[in-house]
Amino acid sequence: MRGSDYGYGAGFAAMGPATLYLMERVSPSSVGKGGFAGPMRLMGAVGLTAGFLLAYSRSISTFVPFFFDTCIQCFRSFVDNGRKVEEKNDGYMNHET
Hints:
Blueprint: H1 3-26, H2 37-60, H3 64-88, H4 90-93
């Protein structure tokens, strides 16, 4: 993985808890002592998972275009073959009775 992948992942992972903390500072929920720890831990776990997934998806993105190019070429060949079959069978399939 590149260094920028780690940076994006860490930044994205920190956004969740930072946003929750900012919302608590702007509009306190007044849950009392220890009431904020549980949601902050949950948001930390969600943030870490999201950060990992972002870093992983960015790191494999260098390999993905080759796969998608192959899939697009395969799809285009199916479409072209379908058009040829339709043109060939045009007189047979659209006959009037």
